[in-house]
Design brief:
The chain is 32% helix and 13% strand. With 233 residues, the chain is an alpha/beta fold.
Amino acid sequence: PSLPFAVASLIKSRSNGDSSPRYPEVDPAGASYIVDPEGNLPQTKNRLVPAITDICSSNEWKWNSVIGSLPSKDFVQDALTQHNSLLLYCGHGGSTCCFSRSQVESLTKKQGNLGSRRCKAAIILMGCSSGKLISVNRKDSMITDKVTMFYEPEGIALSYLCAAAPCVVGNLWDVTDRDIDRYCITLLEKFLVSNDGQSLAKCVAEARCSCKMRHIVGLAPVCYGVPVHLAKR
């Protein structure tokens, strides 16, 4: 959301000394995912779960998962606070049905006299409009360009960033399930399997070609935050 945020995120990734990586990293063995938490996207579940299972089994990764039901608060919080982890959400919206904005922002609460920003995971939100930012006084207007914007745009993506997530991937508008599922699988394969040093942001851009509706669905996913790379195996 700002240059100071980007600098703080990069400094945090170097907090363990000169041997630390230049950019935040994702350990693919420590990922978690949530698919169809509200139980009304059976086709998405049928498409994504086998694909994710194949990726994990071929690399001997054991990802934590919740499929077809709402995860517990502890599950989400553990996934968000695990060092160098990745949280994938495939459901409606921006994951607020599982973990509200107030719960995400509670990860920034002070502990004693020290500030705390405890989110350590990169976030991928594949729901409709999960990356959309809008001013609070424009939420009920269908024609936003005719309504004066009195407040800065906000959204769940910024809540994750403020809680210290180094990177958040989300959709700027509503998308079709079949095409965004295809996109999600391609993104995971490019970033986790066939990665040759590319950042998550680069993979977000390259995965657009997998969509049949490249300009309607393929351009919806965007990446907020700083470059995040795959940890060396």
